[in-house]
Amino acid sequence: MRLGVLDVGSNSVHLLVVDAHRGAHPTPMSSEKSVLRLAEQVRNGRLTRSGAEVLVRTVAAAKQAAFDLGCQDIMAFATSAIRDASNSAQVLERIRVETGVTLSVLSGEDEARYTFLAVRRWYGWSAGRLLVLDIGGGSLELASGVDEDPELAISLPLGAGRLRRERLSDHPPTRPQVAELREWLDDQLAPAVKKLRKTGVANRAVATSKTFRSLARLTGAAPSSAGLRVRRTLTDAGLRQVIAFISRMSADDLAELEGVSASRAHQLVAGALVAEATMRALGLAELEICPWALREGVILRRLDTELEPQGTIGPNGDLRPETGRTLMDEAP
Fold this sequence. Notes:
Distance between the termini: 20 Å
Strand content: 15-25%
């Protein structure tokens, strides 16, 4: 089955097309990204008219692209930017009416659970108890457990983009801003860390998301061209050195660094400080970087819950499958 996964995030709208079936790993076939920075289009708690306009156009284009690539179905979801907007219901209905795409809004806990599932499948049961960290544009997700569903899943409004807008207005930030944010993050993380410690000591601490991958690359991890299966890590010592370096750079200069995309350079320092504070609070000296994250978790859960094919028996005793209509059965 060829599936399209449309992820409407705080920073970008990402269409991932995979070939997948139950019992096999999803094979990426295409990946397209549009940088919208929706979170910056939320004013007074509402997504602006211009923000809604560009989102509708982007979703329509993504649906067309998925159809052109042969997708049999498309799973579309949104995270914190839409979740936080007070007019999200109206925006979602407009998207449904004008594009035919039903965009589901994931809760922060759902994000943590889907991401945890993806990490568990990547590392397998031999990894033991997993502790999973994921920094997005609007939120930080934390999860811990020994099964495929975490025992504890937490979402905190500590995303890289959110903190850059609210707490680090300067490029580069001043030293007092950095020091103040570090202290504030310690306070914000304390209750969640207390809950996580009660679940037990992790056998493996893992990080996902573009922020963690960029930070790991800046500390010397292998580039993406080396392949998914190369082991990549982020150490606390390496992260501190990187922060000392990047916190003195402008967003334009950061965008020139290898492994840092221009669309996320403006929030890299804030993301690095969240990563540092989380590792410090949890007493982690090292994180492994997992290439699978939220989108893969959504795909895997879909495959897990896919019903066995139903059909009717023909006159010669052959099974004739019944074909159900999906979103992608009709051209946009």
